[in-house]
Hints:
The complex is a heterodimer of chains A (153) and B (730). Chain A is α+β, with helices and mostly antiparallel strands and 153 residues long. Chain A has two domains: 2-77, Ubiquitin-like (UB roll), CATH 3.10.20; 85-151, DNA polymerase, domain 1 (Orthogonal Bundle), CATH 1.10.150.120. Chain A contains five helices and five strands, in the order ββαβββαααα. A five-stranded mixed sheet of chain A has the order 2-1-5-3-4, sandwiched between helices. In chain A, a hairpin with a 2-residue loop joins strand 3 (49-52) and strand 4. In chain B, a hairpin with a 2-residue loop joins strand 27 and strand 28 (657-658). Chain B is built from 16 helices and 29 strands. Chain B is α+β, with helices and mostly antiparallel strands and 730 residues long. At the A-B interface, strand 2, helix 1, helix 2, helix 3 and helix 4 of A face helix 4, helix 6 and helix 15 of B.
Amino acid sequence: MALYKLQINGKTVQTEADPDTPLLWVLRDNLGLVGTKYGCGIAMCGACTVHVNGEATRSCVLPVSSVSSAKITTIEGLSKNGDHPVQQAWDEVDVPQCGYCQAGQIMTAAALLKRNPKPSTEEIDATMSGNICRCGTYHRIREAVKVASAKTK
Amino acid sequence: MTSTRRSFLKIAASAGGGLVLGFNWFDAVAADTLQAGGGLPALVHSSKNAAAAASVEFNSFLSIAPDGLVTILSPNPEIGQGIKTAFPIVVAEELDVDWNRVNVVQSALDNKKFDRQLTGGSGAIKHSWTRLRKAGATARQLLMQAAAQRWSVPVTELTTDKGVVFHKASNRKLPYGELVADAAKLPVPADVPLKDPKSFKLIGGTIKNVDNKNILTGKPLFGIDFYREGMLTGMIQRPAFGYKLKSVDAKAAKAMPGIVDVVTFKNNVAVVGKSTWQVKKAREALKIEWEKDGSTESNADHDRLFTEMLNGGKATVQRKDGDVDAAFKSAAKVVKAEYQCPFLPHSPMEPMNFFAHVKFGPNGPESCELAGPTQTPDMARNETAKLLNIPADKITVELTRMGGGFGRRLKADYVVEAAELSSLVKAPVKLIWTREDDMTGGSYRPAVRYRFEAALDAQGNLIGYKLRGASINAGNSTRQDNFPSGAVPNLLIDSVDHKSPITTGAWRAPITNFLAFAEQSFIDEVATAAGKDPVQFRLDLLDKAKASPTGAIKYDIDRMIAVIKLAAEKAGWGQKKGADGKAVAQGFSVYFSHNSYVAQVGEVVMQKGKPVLQKIYAAADCGIIINQSGARQQVMGGIVDGIGHAMYGNMTFKDGVPQQANFNDYRLIRMNEVPAVEVHFVDNGIEPTGLGEPALPPTGAAVSNAYFKATGQRLRNQPFINQDGFKGVS
Lengths: 153, 730
């Protein structure tokens, strides 16, 4: 076990973990930030996506020891009042069915729009195809990214 | 805030129905999202994160606070089918309240208040439609009576809207909140009028998922998010199919940091410890020897078994009409084809997990607290009661939102495991299955091979039909009274099943998830052999079933005809031309399941010599639509699921060992692989039925029949991508 100082959602938090513990489990087990989800543990489904220095990153394969100087944003910290344009768009389009994968989808979409505020349909598909939605809300996810893009100046 | 129990402030049961209780709803529904570094969160069950003090409960489903906030309990487990939104809409409709003032709360298991607290068979809406309406209408009636008394006017002169009672003649009005105290004292009317569906304000509208805000901000909602002070995390290493535990060396695992114990039960080895990662690593350090019990099977065994069962197996006759042998002897043409599908895991995004806390008295287990994702809380409780040998009423079950279910959570195996683990280590335990556990842990969609035979007369009429289902752990793999039964004078449907150590279970639209594909693809083959248009061929069969039915018919012929016609019309069946002026290859499919009807048209176009699935049109009849947004997405999601599993899903076995374990070797459909989907509903005002399953079954054949039209190749085996010569569709 080692002590880690992490920059999460604009705050500095301290926590103890084994160095190889994936950030996902530090968030969920140690810090109670359970909005970031476990889906596969091998970076194949995207449910665990968070922002590390603004980049969409799979937290399930990211050892906590590698992120101590990074700025980490989770779904809980994406916006103060749940009103990030992507969150608003997801609500307007009524994307979620079960909702389990949606935090990861939102984090992926938010990072995409930051990098490319006006993505084409092909660019949306190429980026969002890394995230699985078992309920099959893909049509609405695609639409919501476009709605969020229209909101993003 | 750790408790999510209701605290009863006062019991003010009326002398009349005894239904009216006043109490405070969850004292912890306002559980805030945890800030990093703070305490750990309690689950959120309430859509508005709001606690209503001193609400008056009108019945099992609803209570109203003096400030007008209406709390509606949603009893059924939510797996993404939208029940937590749809049920309260029906109650709120008859109560006549402002939807923005409705707070929806997930109920725990409560047999006294609710029946059929279960998510399966797309049956909740059909079962509860009238109950929900009456719950809302009864409360509305009581509130109007309270107003009538206060104003000394006949109740018949009163109207309501958005949570307010009006007396138009005297221009008076009172919000519900000001009437609840009086209404609570009135006897509960035995019978109340229900609204004329034409005056529905909420039902049939577009209403968003009530949990959107909680989902989109990452609130703790799901079973895997459950936390209890002092709880341990558990993982179990289970045997493959047909194996027994021979020995285990847990020395290294036990010595690892954070590990509390390693215990063995029923061929399982369980590790419990302080955090998920520590437990996972310790489980990997277990040295376990398994031994075969002599029953292990591989895919090659199943292929051989299918052939044996189809050719010589002792089949159980499921339905027999007329004289099939004579029909085939007299046939001008015989069409014969076999269709096969593999086992499939359910792959809900949230793997199996459950929290259990068995509490002990001097003589052993006395009570148990359960919390987590289950489609069958009642069964989970009963099985746990049996395991612990305690009365079921000593067990509580808190229902969490579920990250999908697809039928997997109709089994309580993982709930009982959690309870057993908690009882063995005498501590509260959250059991977690990894993705690998989930995918290799069984309860699969059964593997099946069907053989279809059709006899046509010289005019291309279907005079004989035979179907044999050969299956692994499916029981009866046919649905003998479904279409085309009733429309064929001579028919034989039978089934043979092989018992296997590979466990199976209900998988979204059990049996029909593959039978519909096989049957509707075969009907297309028969129509082609008869030289008839596939849509007209089906309509002719249905006309015949109506004019001169053979045997029992369990589907509504007119409703099936209506969805066929609507889908054909919306898709421009047989007339559609692509940008190149050539006809678009279309495939037709229709299926009745779970009391709803869905027809689909698939469209495949050739792009650079490659077939591409560009669109699916769907026409669905589930009667009255409760929520346009939810219903539409159920159909779209069902179609996406249907395409994905027909195309890619494949679970294989070697000596009883699953050969796929995670999403790197088991492929689920992704965004870039979905075609456009256009959904239409039949508007017929019939009482509503479910939509969680019915859109999936017809999808595979809409794709395969369009693919045939485009390429001339039949797709008879799933997954399509493994079929010889498959050219792809995306």
